Amino acid sequence: MTANVAGTATASADLELRLEAHRRELTGYCYRMLGSAFESEDAVQETMLRAWRKIDGFEGRAALKSWLYRIATNVCLDMLKGRQRRARPMDFGPVGTPQSALTTQPEVTWLEPIPDSRVIADDGDPAEIAQAQETLRLAFVGALQHLPPRQRAVLILREVLRWSAAEVAELLDSSVASVNSALQRARAALNDSDLTPDGPAVALDAEQDALLGRYVAAFERYDMDALVALLREDATLSMPPYDLWLRGQQHVVDWMLGLGHGCRGSRLVASTANGSPAFGQYRPSGPGGSFEPWALQVIELSDGRISAINSFLDTARLFPLFGLPATPPEPG
To answer: Taking a C-beta distance cutoff of 8 angstroms, is the pair 144, 156 a contact?
Structure first.
């Protein structure tokens, strides 16, 4: 009896380790499907629970990985039934101006950023890491949200995870012809839109690190001349949950000196999100040198300049998710 109990415990521990080994990649898959860091973690947890419940029926005819992806896909498709797609400010209308009112869309579910540590293995193959970073960019994940859920799954499995059409067909209980047709429609939809990134993700090297260092210095000094020198001419600024977004160096600066003047004196704490550099922004909150969380900035780089500043204002949820402190550390 004791030996049987010990054997069962060992088998359970081994299974748990085998399941956990897939958690990060499953989180990345569910995030691309759902566009939410929090919902992707819920989806992966539900996937693990379903796997535990059904493990007696797993006969090993398929690899554990493909079996888990089948469960995760069904979980995501269930979660997406009857749901609005997650959106970015760019989805709601043309570019605004620095004088535009700050308004929100009623009942909009916004695209959320995700920490790199939840979805990218820092000790992985450099080529695989680069591929993961490219397909986690906000613009790419946002574009995926415009696809019907099954097309979305097919595109991610075929184009991002490099599964064969036969593997995807088996996972979706479909045919190869149906999978190829769905992939063709998904590709056409993305190609016909202007939602996907306009350039490849930028690997952070010494030059990019120096650029980010200059950005932090310029932002914390609120030196607009120095900031303009770092921005692409067509750089964008967005601030979910506000639907306003701006394009162009001068519009970004004019907004920061106008409605955004409260950001003067902010401090930035480095992080990473969606394969891009990110910063927790803390604004001055009153006399005495106190600061409060204000935004998670996700910075996109292109051609040696900053192409986008995406400021997510839901700090009550995002700062704990990213491991950012309640107050910035003292300088120096």
So the answer is: yes
Report the CATH number at residue 71.
Answer: 1.10.1740.10
pLDDT of residue 7: 45
- Residue in the block written with tokens 């999100």: 273
Residue type, 287: P
How many residues appear in the chain?
332
Domain that holds residue 10: 1-83
The residue among 83, 100, 129 that closes a domain is 83
CB 304, CB 232: distance < 8 Å = no
Widest distance between CA atoms in the chain: 76
Q: Write the pLDDT tens digit of every residue in 5-59.
A: 444 445 566 777 888 899 999 999 999 999 999 999 999 999 999 998 887 766 5
Q: Which of 112-126, 180-194, 242-256 has the highest mean pLDDT?
A: 242-256
Residue that terminates a domain, selected from 54, 83, 112: 83
CA–CA distance, 65 with 59 (Å, rounded to integer): 13
DSSP 3-state of 312: strand
Residue 322's closest CA among 98, 37, 69, 84? 37
Contacts of 63 (CB under 8 A, 6+ apart): none
The count of structural domains within the chain is: 2
